[in-house]
Design goal:
This protein is an alpha+beta fold. The protein has a 4-stranded mixed sheet. Strands 6-5-7 form a 3-stranded antiparallel sheet, with helices on one face. Strand 5 and strand 6 form a beta hairpin. The N and C termini lie far apart (about 75 Å). The protein binds zinc ion. The site of zinc ion has 6 residues, from loops. Zinc ion (ZN) binds next to loops.
């Protein structure tokens, strides 16, 4: 069994300098190296004390390195790059630095697990709230889609899949003129297109928008609920993989907020605009009724019809079109 590696983090230069026998600019070589006493990650850079072949010191500036115990009983420092790559692979320094580094990374990964474990209750709560919201909204959207006239539902789903957000209608413009030869009044038609509005929350009509967040939230909750103790023996990879499978609270909150925003945006869209996706008047009325109801507004047949009439009048007024073709 290899001896246990004690990972010791020095949190300041003062703490290192206070070591009994620490000497600044004390060269470290394979000859005087005894052991690794710890490591440091500092915002101030230190200078590496590896002895070069020329006899001088490396002096490379670094923020991350090792505190090294010397055979003389004193201490010095080595930058991480030198300790981990500049000594011969089979040298005592290199072997110890590699093992220390591996254990340090492993313990950091285990610390990550400890943190998740200590926040377990709060995380479960936050993730559950988010999951519940997203799932309720998913069901709400499914119900709305299922109650819509089929062609309107298909149009919305197609838009959601392609990311298209504008609702447009076709127009017919009629131009009147007097025929020069006969003197009769005649007309000529031209086509046009007009955007009646935008459904910026169109992604709510795509069930795929819900699937991944729902899956991630559910899987994370399952892992959290079965997380009964921190496995101190886990490898770095095992610990990292486990931690990566569990969604953080911030992400869960952000997911909920994003869906809340989409829901609010959807509620701002005029029912008439969505109904303009339907070719038939009856379908437009039915669609308008469903979205009036979804917004919590009066939604009798006559109210729904009024939305349709209002939109038609608006379009004609804005464009001067002779005819509006929906769907
Ligand atoms: Zn160095």
């Amino acid at each position: 069994m290899p001896e246990e590696i004690i990972v010791k983090n020095f949190s300041s230069y003062e703490e290192i300098a206070a070591l009994d026998g620490f000497e600044e600019e004390k060269g470290v070589s394979t000859d005087n190296y005894a052991d690794i006493a710890g490591h440091y990650h500092l915002s101030d850079s230190l200078r590496c004390c590896r002895v070069l072949e020329s006899g001088g010191l490396c002096h490379q500036k670094h923020n991350y390195g090792f505190v090294v115990a010397l055979k003389s009983g004193g201490f010095s420092i080595l930058g991480n790059r030198c300790a981990l790559s500049k000594f011969a692979k089979d040298s005592k320094v290199r072997i110890a630095a590699d093992r220390y580094e591996k254990e340090r990374k492993r313990q950091e990964a285990i610390d990550g697990l400890r943190k998740i474990f200590s926040e377990k209750k709060e995380r479960i709560e936050t993730l559950s709230i988010s999951l519940n919201y997203v799932y309720e909204l998913y069901k709400y959207m499914r119900n709305i889609k299922d109650s819509l006239p089929m062609l309107c539902k298909f149009s919305l789903e197609d838009m959601a899949r392609s990311g298209k957000r504008n609702v447009a209608v076709s127009l017919v413009y009629r131009h009147y003129y007097i025929d020069k030869e006969s003197g009769e009044k005649k007309h000529e038609d031209t086509d046009g297109v007009h955007t009646v509005g935008t459904i910026s929350a169109i992604s709510l009509f795509n069930k795929n928008s819900f699937e991944e967040p729902l899956k991630n939230l559910r899987e994370s909750l399952k892992l959290l609920e079965n997380f009964h103790r921190v496995d101190e023996k886990a490898t770095e990879l095992q610990a990292k993989r486990f931690a990566a499978g569990i969604m953080g609270s911030e992400q869960a909150i952000r997911i909920k907020q994003d869906f809340e925003k989409l829901y609010l945006e959807l509620n701002k869209v005029k029912p008439g605009v969505i109904s303009a996706l339907c070719k038939e008047l009856d379908d437009r009325v039915a669609t308008s009724k469903i979205f009036l109801q979804a917004k919590g507004m009066p939604h009798s047949n006559s109210k729904a019809r009024q939305e349709i009439t209002n939109l038609q009048e608006e379009i004609v007024e804005q464009t001067g079109a002779y005819k509006v073709i929906y769907g």
